[in-house]
Each structure stands twice: as structure tokens, then as C-alpha cells.
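Sequence and fold
=================
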Amino acid sequence: MKIRVPSYYKDFQCIASACEDTCCAGWDVVIDSQTYKTYQDMEGAFGDRLRSKLVVDQDGDNIFVLDGDRCPFLNKDLLCDIHKDLGEEYLCHTCKQYPRYREDFFNLKEMGISLSCPEAARIILGQTKGMTFELSSDSQVGNPDEADEQELLEEFFRCRDAIIHILEMTNLSLGARAGIVLSFVQELQDRLDFAELEALAQVRQKYEKPSFIRELTQELDAHKANEDLKYHNVHAYFKTYASLEHINPNDPLDLEYGLSMFWNTQADKAFYFQKHKAFNQYYKEKMHVFQNILTYFVYRYFMKSFYDYDMSSKIKVAMMSTIMIKELAIIRWIKKGEFDEADMVDISHSYSKDVEHLEKNIETLEIIFETQEEYDMDKIINTLMNEYMIN
């Protein structure tokens, strides 16, 4: 099997107890069947301890009973007793792999590192060059006996490459780049909905032409005349995200705080725009981090559409995640009066941990994005075109 990873993948190394967070807090970790059998067969006091902490959850999965909101094997030094006393080979599959993730496409395995890990977030946000990939073998994808599916898969990859290329057009504002990508995916989705698979390449080739990009950019600029719509759009976004399941009930992402700050009185709208434009000026030299975040979500989610042909919801997950992380960054800046790399890492990894890693939330969001009018492509484009304005 061939393995493809982002070029920064190899830079990750767990910093263990030096990490400002712990991946053992807040989540139920499912114990895979092979590891469960190993724990059941283990003799001695540690085996007894393992079995005493195992329960079956409502989905029928074997998990550890949390000690408060922490894994019962996380010790006072913020290290794992299983790893320390038994060795890495005795960890369950999830703990061995995290924060790495993978997607399999025939005989190609794509892997990445998750934004939910603070150290991985530092690496992802710190990228200053375009996204490149490393392949462990040759670039052939698929099985010769599945030629039609192989060609379609390769076209999906070419479409994702085109999306990443558009996001790297730094001569355009990030809002314009994101708007172009949404238009691109909407056209692709229209072809998929009518089973016009052979037309995907034609759509992609159109969006690869600089002349078409220039024309579309001019059309998208019309959205800048409707700032008020963006204000109402973002209000709907905050209410959606506040309604999701969260790791803890104490407003971990400041969503309720944001709702009370920006959408309580008529004067709040002027305050909202004042602070957003001020933040864009304050942070203008570091705006590339939002491109990195958007590219991360595109890489992680877009190719999942190969299995369900739902490109639209996948790209909306990427766009909305980037919008919300930026909105939360502004709230942090207002509260603190300043904003640095540590804040950006904390907000990004907290969002990913709270939203992205509760699978139910992603499934809920995909349904909402495709059924509620606040998330129509044109409305999200309007938000994006007004999100990065300075003057």
C-alpha cells in the first residue's frame, strides 16, 4: 500500500507532559477488540486494574470509565501508566495513532495529523509555504481491475489539488479564494447530483483558467456591498454551534459569550464590525494562519466525498470551521486586548477537539449545512467576502 502525507507530517513528535493539554481528557476512548482481549487475558495487579476500569457504553463499545473527565490511567505527571508500565504496544489503537488519522482509497492510504492536538496545531498553523505531499512509493492509485473507479478517484484528487491551488493564490484575499472554491464545489456537486461524472474534469479545467478566475473574482466582489447579511449569517452560525454537544457545559469555545457580546442590542452590530475590522488590521501580517486552517480541513474532509458524492457538505465543514475559528479568535482578542500564537493554537485545537472529534457533531453539521437556508452557498460566500476586510 502506498502512503501519502503532508510534508509537515514527519515534523510531529508528541511532547508528552510538556503539552498544555492532554488527549486523555474529555473523550471516551474506544478499546479495539484485539487490545480488549489482551487486557482481559493479562495477569497480575495491572491486569486487574485494567479490567476494573473497562465498561461497555450505550453503543456497545468497550471504553474506560473516566476519572472525572480524564482517563483513569493518566497519572499525576500527565503521563500514561499503561505506556509507562507495559509499553506502547499495549496501548489501544486510538492511543497509538493519535493525533494521526488516515483515509484509505483502494491501495492508497492518506494520513495527517489532527488540529485537536496542540503540538500538531503549532505545526499546521506555522506553515509558511504551500501544501506539498510526500508519497512512499509511486503515484498510482487504485486497482487495475477497478479502472472506472480508479479514474474517478483520480479526478476527485485532481479537484482537491485545484482547490488547494486556488487557496494558495495569495494575490487574492482569502475571502475571495474561499468564495471561488465554494463556487467550484457547487458546480461539481451539481454534476454529481445528475450523475454527470464525466463533466467533473470540464468543471475543474474551467476553474484552472486564470481568465475565468479573474471574471469570477469581480462577480464575487458584489457581496461586499451587503455587510449586514454577514452579520445576520454569523449570528445563525453561533446559535448552531452553541446547540451542539460539547466536551463540557462551561462554554468551552466562548460561543454563548459571543452571542451575548454581539447580538443583544442594536448597538452591537456597529461594535461587531468595528472590532472585526480592527482585528483584521491588528492581525494582517499573520492572516496566513487561516489559509493553513482552511487547507487542513479541505485535506481532511474533501476526499471523504468520494464515498458519498457529497462534496458540498464536506467543503462547508471546511469553510464554516475556518469562519468560526476566526470569529472565536476575535472574541479572545477582545477579552485579552492582545492575541498571540499561543492563543491561536489554543482556539484552533479547542475547536477541533470540541467539534471535530465528536463524530456526532460533524454528522449533525453536515445535515444542517445542507438543509438550512443560512448555509446556502451564496450566504456563506457573502460571509467570506466580508470576513477579511480591513477598510
